[in-house]
Amino acid sequence: EGLKRLQNAIREREPLIRQALYQDLNKSAAESYMTEIGMVMEELRFAIRHLAHWAKPRAARTPLAQFPSKSYRIPEPYGVVLILSPWNYPFQLTLSPLIGALAAGNCAVLKPSNYSPRTSRQIQELIASCFPPEQVSVVLGGREENSALLEQKFDYIFFTGGITVGKLVMQSAARFLTPVTLELGGKSPCLVDSTANLALAARRIVFGKFLNAGQTCVAPDYILVERSVEKPLLAELDKAVRQLYAHALENKDYPKIINQKHFNRLLGLLRGQKLLCGGKSRPDALKIEPAVLTDVSPESAVMQEEIFGPLLPVLPV
């Protein structure tokens, strides 16, 4: 019943959620549905359809010492779950873990990111319209609220975000022996060898990398390309960027960098790099063109941290 209430409420509030995502990240209606709202609705449909099967007792073999009894396993909820979500997909990465928690019979406290305040406010209003606060509550705020929540004893913590905060979450959870799921990003390489269909690979890499202006934890962070196909791959990447992201800075639907701090960080990583294409920026709109970087040194600043933006280094191997 709770999952169905949530499903109906999202349908009713979809225009407001889309507007909030546009205000926070400049996501178009199509991108908001594809990467956020649509994924949550599919998760809800899947959970509602399979819930009875997941919850039913499972037969288990009975040891001879317990003859003539019968044994079975019953799934049980953990209890109260804390869900800490990030700003890059603020709706999807808050609601998807909640669906799993509710389906398993837990209560939950949601802490959406302070960097996407309009979406966080929409989530708070959405949840208040569906659940009593003793079942699901939303806490808004920044680091102070995060720290206060991690001082509490929860039965499970689900965290999506960066490695630095992930370590703090794990540290806090260890005090109470709280089980944790950490969904973290990193410098994920994309490998292209001489057997690849280069035109197809380039289009797929460009799509996956520059979706949400590169602010995706599972995006390719950089490319390792077999030296023999480096030049033809670069030509295809240049072509794909121009096809998919022509006039990106003027495009009202091209996502922006979340805030000034991250915008400045990305411009710092771009400084001194050789560009195949892109790389221009609009400080007034916090937008950076998709940029493909060549002749990148493994020791350069751009290779020392997760990029989390529309910069794609290409390294031959």
DSSP helix fraction? 40-55%
Mean residue pLDDT: 95
- Biggest β-sheet: count, sense, barrel? 5 strands, parallel
Beginning-to-end CA distance, first to last residue: 54 Å
The assigned structural class equals alpha/beta
Count the beta strands: 14
What low-confidence regions span 5 or more consecutive residues with pLDDT below 50? Answer: none
Percent strand: 15-25%
Strand/helix succession: HHEEEHEHEHEHEEHEHHEEEEE
Q: In angstroms, what is the radius of gyration?
A: 22 Å
| Strand arrangement across the biggest beta sheet | 5-4-3-6-7
Question: What general outline do the C-alpha atoms trace?
Answer: globular
Instruction: Specify the number of helices.
Output: 9
Q: How would you summarize this macromolecular structure in one to three sentences?
A:
With 317 residues, the chain is an alpha/beta fold. It has 9 helices and 14 strands.
Which characteristics define this entry?
317 residues; alpha/beta; 5-stranded parallel beta sheet; 9 helices; 18% strand
Description:
- By secondary structure, the chain is α/β, with parallel strands linked by helices.
- The protein contains 9 helices and 14 strands.
- It has helices spanning 2-25, 29-55, 92-103, 117-130, 143-150, 163-176, 198-210, 230-244, 260-270, and strands spanning 58-60, 71-73, 80-84, 107-111, 136-138, 156-161, 180-184, 189-192, 222-225, 274-277, 281-282, 287-288, 291-294, 311-316.
- The strands form 4 sheets. The chain has a 5-stranded parallel β-sheet with strand order 5-4-3-6-7, with helices on both faces. It has a 5-stranded mixed β-sheet with strand order 8-9-14-13-10, covered by helices on one side. A two-stranded antiparallel sheet has the order 1-2.
- Helix 1 runs antiparallel to helix 2 (29-55), helix 2 (29-55) packs parallel to helix 3 and helix 7 crosses helix 8 (230-244).
- The radius of gyration is 22 Å and the shape is globular.
- The N and C termini lie far apart (54 Å).
- The model has no long low-confidence stretch (mean pLDDT 95).
